[in-house]
């Protein structure tokens, strides 16, 4: 785990605890198995390990974006988890993502999301039919049955009718293909007009995802889905007090940190995340620490604290 390697090589990254033995062991392992055989310094070897991890994550992002027809440059990259903010700036730079967002307490971001997400139940039925042979009534009956199942499931979870809503989708493909696209089915009744809208959306999404569309080719419906959603109350986010751009009051010290962009170690400022205020700006290189994660801001980037404490990291112009 590259995040653990960073921590072991820089004990000050941790808030409390004696990790001297772990640090020495990590240094020894990296030096003996990586640095010495390759003729590298300890810093260079550790940096190489992290770059390998970063490359794997960049490829993973491309798998769920570029290979699905989405340009990462059109999105904001949100980094969370204990290790995410350590790697995110480097990954955003590699993908040319214009804005990186680090939420407050990123280490518990997933757990927080689990507590505030709406209730959801997914239902599906397989009905492989060509568009010209589609049994609209049978499909509508299938949708109705799945909605009824969703109502029953949400009712058992004490969801009132006014908090329930349902999302209908279908998996579609050109006849002869072995892969499908999931297309939304609007409205509450599957009419001829709705079916035409679904077909047009499919052709458009196919062109976006794969670079071409074939409106004259027969289209096949494969699966039909209903997602039953029960709304729950959401907490109100705390708005931070505005402060000046200078984050000096949150500065806790300086530390020698390795950045390849500056050719090696650089004495970088260290900030306490929970002492930052709305409007603060932190130019890189810099480190922002909090109890559950560490954010690395690379040279050539600046982080700004928004109204709710998120760090918005952008490339300097």
Core attributes:
disordered N terminus; elongated; 317 residues; five-stranded mixed beta sheet; 27% strand; alpha+beta; four-stranded antiparallel beta sheet
Quick summary:
This protein is α+β, with helices and mostly antiparallel strands and about 325 residues long. It is about 35% helix and about 25% strand.
Characterization of this structure:
The protein is an alpha+beta fold and 317 residues long. The protein is 35% helix and 27% strand. It is built from 7 helices and 13 strands. The protein has helices at residues 2-9, 20-38, 42-64, 84-95, 109-116, 136-156, 192-210, and strands at residues 76-78, 99-102, 119-130, 164-174, 181-184, 219-230, 251-259, 264-272, 281-283, 286-290, 293-297, 301-305, 311-315. Strands 1-2-13-12-9 form a 5-stranded mixed β-sheet, with helices on one face. Strand 4 and strand 5 (181-184) form a beta hairpin. It is elongated, with a radius of gyration of 25 Å. Residues 1-19 have low confidence and may be disordered.
Query: Percent range for helical residues?
Result: 25-40%
Number of strands: 13
- Return the average pLDDT rounded to an integer: 89
Briefly note the structural class of the backbone. alpha+beta
SSE pattern: HHHEHEHEHEEHEEEEEEEE
Largest sheet: 5 strands, mixed
Compute the CA-based radius of gyration. Answer: 25 Å
Strand content: 25-35%
Number of helices: 7
What strand line-up does the widest sheet have? Answer: 1-2-13-12-9
Envelope shape: elongated
Low-confidence stretches: 1-19
Measured distance between first and last alpha carbons: 33 Å
């Amino acid at each position: 785990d590259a995040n653990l390697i960073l921590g072991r090589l820089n004990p000050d990254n941790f808030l409390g605890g004696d990790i001297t033995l772990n640090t020495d062991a990590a240094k020894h392992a990296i030096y003996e198995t990586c640095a010495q055989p390759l003729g590298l310094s300890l810093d260079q070897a550790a940096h190489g390990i992290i770059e390998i991890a970063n490359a794997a994550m960049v490829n993973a992002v491309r798998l769920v974006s570029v290979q699905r027809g989405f340009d990462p440059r059109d999105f904001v990259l949100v980094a969370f988890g204990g290790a995410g903010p350590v790697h995110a700036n480097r990954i955003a730079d590699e993908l040319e993502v214009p804005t990186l967002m680090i939420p407050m307490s990123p280490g518990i971001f997933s757990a927080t999301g689990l507590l505030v997400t709406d209730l959801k139940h997914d239902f599906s039925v397989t009905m492989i039919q060509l568009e010209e042979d589609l049994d609209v009534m049978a499909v509508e009956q299938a949708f109705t049955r799945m909605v009824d199942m969703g109502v029953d499931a949400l009712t058992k979870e004490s969801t009132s009718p006014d908090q329930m809503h349902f999302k209908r989708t279908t998996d579609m493909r050109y006849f002869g293909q072995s892969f499908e696209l999931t297309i939304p089915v609007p409205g509450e009744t599957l009419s001829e007009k709705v079916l035409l809208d679904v077909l047009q959306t499919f052709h458009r999404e196919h062109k976006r995802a794969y670079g071409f569309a074939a409106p004259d080719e027969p289209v096949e419906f494969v699966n039909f889905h209903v997602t039953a959603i029960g709304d729950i109350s959401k907490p109100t986010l705390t708005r931070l007090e505005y402060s000046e751009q200078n984050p000096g009051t949150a500065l806790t010290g300086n530390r020698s940190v390795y950045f390849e962009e500056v050719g090696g170690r650089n004495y970088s400022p260290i900030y306490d995340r929970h002492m930052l205020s709305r409007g603060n700006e932190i130019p890189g290189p810099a480190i922002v620490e909090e109890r559950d994660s560490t954010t690395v801001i690379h040279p050539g980037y600046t982080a700004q604290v928004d109204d709710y404490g998120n760090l918005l990291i952008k490339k300097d112009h």
